[in-house]
Design a protein that fits this description.
Length: 674
């Protein structure tokens, strides 16, 4: 295979470059999905309820609120009309839809009025059409000016749409120079880092372009996958070129040196890619399809990086190796760091420390206060600041919609009375509230009844102040579901943002166990085959899994809420991406152990491999922290922070804790290795 690749090197290089160019244009045809609710399973209650409402009613759930200061009721009605006239805005609701404003508002129920109007400030709810969020929110901002505010799901989506592309480019602009600097410090040629980045960069571009066959990707995948692919698979290129440089010292023929390098590095690259590949595959089995979206992209990316390093990079290097030769420089940092003796002296304290921490960390990482939605936008953004203003004035507001079988107004009124007595329910909007059970709907014009009735269902809007996310909100959803079921059985539906997030919680908590088990088992099988040992996979997985648990437990001990999607993804990604550090150290240790004592073998391996592991870990750590720093999206920011911190934790444990395990269980490992 190596001979054929090198024989047709010009064709290989031209083919990959052509594919990369085509992919640059193809990626612009791939749409980005910002709606996380679309990734829920088709059989989830809120998904079914949404489909029913879309079939029965013309308007959708309200997904934005506009707060107008210093207005009378009549002025607020004028604003409502202007909002209704904006193309892309539907279903605008305000106080006049809940009560008869021809009567003095002092006669109306105070809690209902204060939901919409207080202290000369009006809060108007509306629906913005999907896929038009950016265009419509810009028009609304132009109408209301800087002094007024707007929030809601549609606003969050619009911000994500505006920021995802620019923030990803900004992150790349920061990362690439830093990665080049790290690679320059770790090599002996100014051009070598360019070869690394060219190979992996081409695979990243092809991965983005081949998303055209998927049709669309989530904004999380768009933000995270390219940089994660770059950071995780850069090692493959480093393995190959370092081998090539070693063989250049033994033979004058560059093609022969590359053939030998390909043969030598192929097992290491394959083992490294396999653990990552199978680890990422586990994400694809999530019921919450955001995992499949990201998992498929990462699996595809790792496969493409592997192929590019095995096929393109050898051909490209043999064609242009003179560039490397002409730009040689002295090593800027030593490749051996004599810290093995120091690490070994710390093995007993490190072993005790990690074993003491690991149990509390395991328990704490599942008890963190989780966020199941998008999370809150930073206060330094207009959307984040507006949301805070609206909450301070009107409190939390989340509508829950009930679709009840049409026909029995008295039963509907009984349900509404029970709902209005709930602590976190501020008001309800229904036919019985706006008109009366005494007047049959058939006697009124369609324009009056169409917002309340479809052919088969009656729609009740329950305004709540428990928020859309968190234990209080989810308990309220369960209560509303129970009361609705009491009156209508399984013939009624409950939907809304909090109901959707409740379903998300149920789904991802179920996914968590499945994905973690699949990741561990798949990586364990790869390690079992690679090392031909029963004990070695346990030692390696315990090391990396300990770093995962410690990383994910920190939010619990600091009292920080964590986006659950980030938690779920990182528990897989960190394990799959950083197990390579352990493989690199352990493979070298196994070879050294054949010739010397366990103590000398591990000391030699640490001295020789700590630099390579540090280079890989520093790149992944910096990628994570830069993602966290540059992204205003809470999900992407959390994933970045967890990834950066996790890579750092994995590096520390591989260098300090793994050697202690290898020494402690040396005899057991030898007896359980074929």
């Amino acid at each position: 295979m190596a001979s054929r690749i090198l024989k047709h090197k010009k064709f290989v290089v031209f083919t990959f470059i052509l594919l990369a160019v085509i992919s640059i244009f193809a990626q612009f045809t791939v749409s980005v999905n910002y709606n996380l609710t679309e990734y829920l399973p088709e059989d989830s209650p809120s998904t079914i309820a949404m489909e029913v409402m879309e079939e029965e009613f013309e308007d959708s759930i309200q997904n934005a609120r506009v707060m107008i200061h210093d207005v009378s009721i009549q002025e607020a009605l004028v604003f409502k009309e202007k909002l209704n006239e904006i193309d892309g805005v539907t279903n605008v609701d305000w106080l006049d839809d809940a009560i008869d404003i021809k009567m003095p508002i002092e006669m109306a129920e105070e809690s209902t009025v204060e939901t919409y109007y207080q202290d000369d400030t009006a809060l108007i709810s509306l629906t913005i059409e999907e896929e038009r969020e950016v265009e419509v929110t810009d028009k609304i901002y132009a109408l209301i000016g800087e002094e007024n505010a707007m929030d809601g799901e549609a606003v969050d989506t619009a911000v994500s749409q505006k920021m995802t592309g620019s923030e990803t480019m900004f992150a790349a602009a920061i990362l690439i120079p830093i990665i080049i600097l790290i690679l320059v410090l770790s090599t002996t040629s100014w051009m070598e880092p360019v070869f690394f980045l060219t190979a992996i960069g081409i695979s990243v571009l092809i991965n983005l372009g081949t998303n055209i066959f998927l049709g669309e990707v989530s904004f999380i995948t768009q933000s995270v996958a390219p940089l994660l692919q770059l950071a995780v698979s850069l090692d493959y290129a480093i393995f190959l070129l370092h081998s090539f440089q070693d063989y250049r010292k033994k033979t004058e023929n560059p093609e022969e040196a590359m053939r030998l390098a390909m043969k030598r590095s192929f097992p290491a690259i394959t083992a490294s890619a396999s653990t990552t590949f199978f680890g990422f595959i586990a994400l694809s089995f999530m019921d919450f399809e955001i995992g499949a979206d990201l998992g498929i992209n990462l699996v595809k990316g790792i496969a493409l990086s592997y192929i590019t390093v095995i096929v393109f990079l050898p051909a490209f290097t043999v064609m242009f190796y003179k560039w490397i030769d002409k730009t040689r420089h002295k090593a800027l940092l030593p490749s051996k760091w004599h810290i093995g003796k120091f690490v070994i002296n710390l093995r007993i304290p490190m072993l005790i420390l990690v074993l003491l921490i690991i149990v509390p960390a395991f328990m704490a990482q599942s008890q963190t206060n989780f966020i199941f939605g998008m999370g809150e936008l930073p206060e330094n953004t207009r959307a984040g600041s507006d949301a805070l203003q609206i909450e301070e004035t009107f409190g939390e507001y989340t509508p829950v919609i009930i679709l009840a079988p049409r026909g029995d107004l008295s039963r509907e009124e009984q349900l509404i009375q029970e709902l209005r007595n709930l602590v976190n329910v501020t008001s309800t909007i229904s036919y019985t509230d706006a008109v009366s059970t005494a007047i049959p709907p058939e006697y009124l014009e369609n324009t009056v009844t169409e917002q309340f009735f479809s052919e088969n269902y009656s729609r009740i809007i329950v305004n709540t102040n428990a928020g859309s996310d968190g234990e209080e909100a989810f308990q309220l959803v369960e209560t509303i579901q129970d009361k609705t079921e009491h009156y209508y059985g399984d013939e009624a539906y409950v939907l809304g943002e909090s109901a959707t997030l409740y379903d998300t919680k149920v789904t991802v908590e179920r996914d968590n166990t499945l994905v973690n088990v699949m990741t561990v088992v798949s990586i364990a099988i790869v390690l079992l085959i690679s090392f031909r040992s029963i004990s070695m996979p346990v030692v390696l997985l315990l090391t990396i899994q300990a770093s995962v648990w410690i990383n994910l437990s920190i939010p619990y001990f600091t009292g920080t809420a964590l986006v659950f999607i980030g938690y779920l993804i990182i528990s897989t990604v960190q394990l799959a991406a950083t197990v390579d550090y352990g493989i690199l150290l352990t493979e070298d240790y196994v070879q050294n152990r054949k010739k010397m004592s366990a103590l000398e073998a591990i000391k030699k391996s640490i001295n020789e491999k700590v630099f390579s592991i540090a280079v890989s870990a520093s790149i992944l750590t910096i990628v994570g922290f830069v993602l966290s720093f540059t992204s205003t999206n809470p999900i992407v920011s959390d994933i970045g922070l967890l990834l950066g911190r996790g890579a750092l934790m994995a590096f520390i444990l591989v260098i300090c804790f793994l050697p202690a395990l290898l020494l402690t269980f040396d005899k057991f490992i030898r007896k359980t290795t074929w």
